[in-house]
């Protein structure tokens, strides 16, 4: 969870700590070691919990909740390939999950492919579909992208409901189980680990992109697309590639869900709400961080499952989701991870390194606050100021 | 091949529907022009107004048209409050994306509250003149549809006159064109932007009342409206009111004509086809100006 997903512009801040010349580095190094040790311990605990959970879970219900949470985590992480790196917010990623689910189901039922080859074939097909969609959506900036992403869900819902002869329409569609003879408990156990593996794959891919030159280009798009383009970043190609990668992971999660759950309904598969949940989870956790969407998925997903169990399915869950989204957007658009880290830095002391990374937004804000010293068109001049 | 009479009737119905689309799209265009905000909650407010008209009619028996006296000022104030209290708080750098999420959240809240208050049951207003229709060159047109169109047309005309021929309209257009320059000329752009949002939301109040006259309403209906409306403003060119009106009329008519041969749900896909086609081949829209290029 390094902060190297933070952005572009480096400004030299003031050096903190270090009163005398005797040992200004000793304290930071010790602190670094403690932090590393705690991080390793945290990883160990998390992995142990992950691997032993199906065995210690009190009942089958807990395992199904855990699978649902893992599914949300994969979806939110997959969404974050586009949302986190490029800053383009897609409200329609539910469409790719739905296409992955229906693609897998249709390939199993109509083409009689075995379950898992069908899953991968469906994900590949969704990747192909994402190319023209991304081409139309990414030619233009933000506003139109959002419009296309919502329209995609709505049009697919119409098509999958209307085309009853092919998709089963509103009656839904039953997906054959991948392991016919398996007991239900064992079935859940297998899918628990399959979802965990998919999550690991998504996280590793995100981490690799984050550290690559490709990732740097994507993040430069997020901070200032015009400038990135002017510096020679092939912005359109980058956006399109990462959009397709994101769609493929989303489709894999959707397809795996179809194989696990075994029953599809267009209203739930092509729901605008599922896309909104992905955004909410990623934003709540923090889109600039590897584990942000995972954390958000655990919190939001658990809250969703809990309220479903306690209060049943009332329209009030829409109100809750809406209010939560509004609160996140208004008060912590960077998510809880930066907020918590800020608190931690305050209590542990220090925290700021001599070379600080700030976002373009923070820089602009700081310069506006600086007042008359800043040039009137600070957008074009921000690099030269210290 | 459908008969000429049927085609004529469909064209008329399409035009009547297009009028309503045009009014609502004008509201969306206003928001976009003022703040570069894609207002997802627009159609949720539309359904809210329709529910208010239905509820007032059920409780007191008043004509739904009379609810306009209350809903239009109420929605105007809500629009001003929305802009001044919520949207203006967002950071300007990420405004477009975050405002989409915020208005989306508002749409969810409205849908959830409507579902909670009135349940998900489909509702419809029964009026004395609900089933009356007029004969026009062999086409039968329901009176309620004509009333809805008249409401939409009058409001659009009023909006046009207000924007073109009043001092406030000039200030609003100046704010849309160049905010800093407008401020240098002494326009209180923040207040003008707030009133502009109020006007936009008032179109949803008028549209909702017109909708309640001849449609069955339910809480999640707004998703069926926001898609076509967004397609209209993209095809028309984001930020262009005449473009949105022309696109609304054209697409409304095409939808109506397609319904002769196809089921209603398939006919609605024309909006999305137009949206994808426009973005792939002419991303600035067909009537868009300078604004549309970059969004």
TrEMBL record, chain A:
<feature type="region of interest" description="Disordered">
    <location>
        <begin position="366"/>
        <end position="386"/>
    </location>
</feature>
<dbReference type="GO" id="GO:0015658">
    <property type="term" value="F:branched-chain amino acid transmembrane transporter activity"/>
</dbReference>
<keyword id="KW-0812">Transmembrane</keyword>
<dbReference type="GO" id="GO:0005886">
    <property type="term" value="C:plasma membrane"/>
</dbReference>
<feature type="transmembrane region" description="Helical">
    <location>
        <begin position="236"/>
        <end position="260"/>
    </location>
</feature>
<feature type="transmembrane region" description="Helical">
    <location>
        <begin position="115"/>
        <end position="138"/>
    </location>
</feature>
<feature type="transmembrane region" description="Helical">
    <location>
        <begin position="145"/>
        <end position="164"/>
    </location>
</feature>
<keyword id="KW-1003">Cell membrane</keyword>
<feature type="region of interest" description="Disordered">
    <location>
        <begin position="1"/>
        <end position="25"/>
    </location>
</feature>
<feature type="transmembrane region" description="Helical">
    <location>
        <begin position="40"/>
        <end position="57"/>
    </location>
</feature>
<dbReference type="InterPro" id="IPR001851">
    <property type="entry name" value="ABC_transp_permease"/>
</dbReference>
<keyword id="KW-0472">Membrane</keyword>
<feature type="transmembrane region" description="Helical">
    <location>
        <begin position="291"/>
        <end position="309"/>
    </location>
</feature>
<keyword id="KW-1133">Transmembrane helix</keyword>
<protein>
    <submittedName>
        <fullName>Branched-chain amino acid transport system permease protein</fullName>
    </submittedName>
</protein>
<dbReference type="InterPro" id="IPR043428">
    <property type="entry name" value="LivM-like"/>
</dbReference>
<feature type="transmembrane region" description="Helical">
    <location>
        <begin position="63"/>
        <end position="82"/>
    </location>
</feature>
<feature type="transmembrane region" description="Helical">
    <location>
        <begin position="315"/>
        <end position="332"/>
    </location>
</feature>
<dbReference type="Pfam" id="PF02653">
    <property type="entry name" value="BPD_transp_2"/>
</dbReference>
<feature type="transmembrane region" description="Helical">
    <location>
        <begin position="190"/>
        <end position="209"/>
    </location>
</feature>
<feature type="transmembrane region" description="Helical">
    <location>
        <begin position="89"/>
        <end position="109"/>
    </location>
</feature>
Automatic annotation (TrEMBL), chain B:
<dbReference type="GO" id="GO:0022857">
    <property type="term" value="F:transmembrane transporter activity"/>
</dbReference>
<feature type="transmembrane region" description="Helical">
    <location>
        <begin position="139"/>
        <end position="163"/>
    </location>
</feature>
<keyword id="KW-0029">Amino-acid transport</keyword>
<keyword id="KW-1133">Transmembrane helix</keyword>
<dbReference type="Pfam" id="PF02653">
    <property type="entry name" value="BPD_transp_2"/>
</dbReference>
<dbReference type="GO" id="GO:0005886">
    <property type="term" value="C:plasma membrane"/>
</dbReference>
<comment type="similarity">
    <text>Belongs to the binding-protein-dependent transport system permease family. LivHM subfamily.</text>
</comment>
<feature type="transmembrane region" description="Helical">
    <location>
        <begin position="6"/>
        <end position="30"/>
    </location>
</feature>
<keyword id="KW-1003">Cell membrane</keyword>
<dbReference type="GO" id="GO:0006865">
    <property type="term" value="P:amino acid transport"/>
</dbReference>
<dbReference type="InterPro" id="IPR052157">
    <property type="entry name" value="BCAA_transport_permease"/>
</dbReference>
<dbReference type="InterPro" id="IPR001851">
    <property type="entry name" value="ABC_transp_permease"/>
</dbReference>
<feature type="transmembrane region" description="Helical">
    <location>
        <begin position="192"/>
        <end position="213"/>
    </location>
</feature>
<feature type="transmembrane region" description="Helical">
    <location>
        <begin position="99"/>
        <end position="119"/>
    </location>
</feature>
<keyword id="KW-0812">Transmembrane</keyword>
<keyword id="KW-0813">Transport</keyword>
<feature type="transmembrane region" description="Helical">
    <location>
        <begin position="68"/>
        <end position="87"/>
    </location>
</feature>
<keyword id="KW-0472">Membrane</keyword>
<feature type="transmembrane region" description="Helical">
    <location>
        <begin position="263"/>
        <end position="281"/>
    </location>
</feature>
<protein>
    <submittedName>
        <fullName>Branched-chain amino acid transport system permease protein</fullName>
    </submittedName>
</protein>
<feature type="transmembrane region" description="Helical">
    <location>
        <begin position="225"/>
        <end position="251"/>
    </location>
</feature>
<feature type="transmembrane region" description="Helical">
    <location>
        <begin position="37"/>
        <end position="56"/>
    </location>
</feature>
């Amino acid at each position: 969870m390094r902060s190297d997903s933070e952005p572009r512009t480096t400004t030299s801040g003031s050096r903190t700590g270090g009163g005398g010349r005797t040992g200004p580095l000793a304290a930071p190094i010790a602190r670094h070691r403690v932090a590393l040790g705690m991080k390793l311990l945290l990883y160990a605990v998390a992995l142990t919990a992950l691997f032993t959970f199906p065995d210690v879970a009190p009942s089958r219900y807990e395992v199904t909740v855990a699978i649902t949470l893992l599914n949300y985590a994969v979806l939110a992480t997959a969404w974050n390939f586009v949302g986190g790196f490029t800053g383009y917010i897609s409200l329609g990623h539910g469409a790719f999950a739905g296409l992955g689910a229906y693609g897998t189901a249709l390939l199993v039922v109509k083409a009689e492919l075995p379950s898992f080859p069908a899953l991968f074939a469906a994900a590949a097909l969704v990747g192909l579909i994402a190319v023209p969609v991304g081409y139309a959506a990414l030619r233009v900036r933000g506003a139109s992208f959002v419009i296309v992403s919502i329209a995609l869900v709505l049009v697919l819902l119409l098509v999958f409901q209307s085309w009853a002869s092919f998709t089963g329409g509103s009656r839904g569609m039953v997906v054959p189980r991948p392991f016919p003879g398996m007991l239900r408990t064992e079935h859940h156990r297998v899918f628990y680990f399959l979802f965990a593996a998919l999550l690991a794959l998504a996280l590793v891919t995100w981490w690799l992109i984050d550290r690559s030159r490709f990732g740097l280009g994507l993040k430069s798009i997020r901070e200032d697309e015009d400038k990135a383009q002017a510096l020679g970043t092939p912005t359109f190609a980058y956006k399109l590639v990462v959009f397709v990668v994101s769609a493929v992971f989303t489709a894999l999660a959707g397809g795996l869900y179809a194989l696990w759950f075994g029953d599809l309904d267009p209203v739930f598969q092509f729901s605008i709400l599922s896309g909104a949940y992905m955004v909410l989870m990623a934003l709540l956790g923090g889109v600039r961080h590897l584990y942000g969407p995972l954390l958000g998925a655990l919190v939001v997903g658990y809250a969703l499952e809990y309220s479903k169990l306690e209060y049943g399915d009332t329209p009030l869950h829409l109100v809750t989701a809406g209010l939560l989204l509004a609160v996140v957007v208004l008060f912590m658009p960077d998510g809880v991870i930066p907020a918590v880290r800020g608190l931690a830095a305050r209590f542990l002391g220090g925290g700021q390194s001599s070379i600080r990374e700030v976002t373009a937004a923070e820089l602009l804000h700081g310069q506006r606050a600086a007042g008359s010293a800043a040039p009137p068109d600070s957008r074009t001049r921000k690099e030269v100021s210290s | 091949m459908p008969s000429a009479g049927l085609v004529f009737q469909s064209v008329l119905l399409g035009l009547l529907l297009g009028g309503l689309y045009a009014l609502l799209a004008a509201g969306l265009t206003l928001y976009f022009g003022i703040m570069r905000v894609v207002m997802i909650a627009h159609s949720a407010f539309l359904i809210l107004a329709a529910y208010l008209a239905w509820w007032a009619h059920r409780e007191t028996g008043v004509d739904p048209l009379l609810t306009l006296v209350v809903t239009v000022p109420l929605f105007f104030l809500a629009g001003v409050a929305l802009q001044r209290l919520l949207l203006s708080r967002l950071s300007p750098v990420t405004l477009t994306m975050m405002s989409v999420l915020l208005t989306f959240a508002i749409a969810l809240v409205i849908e959830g509250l409507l579902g909670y208050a009135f349940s998900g049951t489909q509702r419809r207003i029964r009026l004395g003149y609900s089933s009356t229709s007029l004969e026009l060159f062999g086409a039968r047109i329901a009176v309620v549809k004509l009333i809805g169109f008249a409401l939409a047309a009058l409001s659009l005309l009023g909006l046009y006159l207000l924007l073109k021929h009043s001092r406030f309209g000039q200030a609003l257009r100046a704010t849309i064109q160049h905010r800093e320059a407008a401020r240098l000329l002494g326009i209180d752009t923040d207040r003008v932007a707030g009133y502009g949002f109020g006007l936009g939301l008032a179109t949803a109040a008028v549209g909702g009342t017109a909708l309640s006259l001849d449609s069955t309403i339910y809480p999640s209906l707004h998703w069926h409206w926001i898609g076509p409306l967004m397609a209209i403003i993209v095809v028309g060119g984001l930020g262009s009111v005449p473009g949105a009106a022309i696109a609304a009329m054209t697409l409304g008519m095409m939808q109506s004509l397609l319904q002769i041969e196809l089921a209603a749900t398939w006919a609605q896909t024309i909006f999305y086809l137009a949206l994808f086609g426009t973005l792939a081949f002419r991303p600035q829209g067909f009537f868009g100006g300078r604004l549309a290029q970059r969004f």
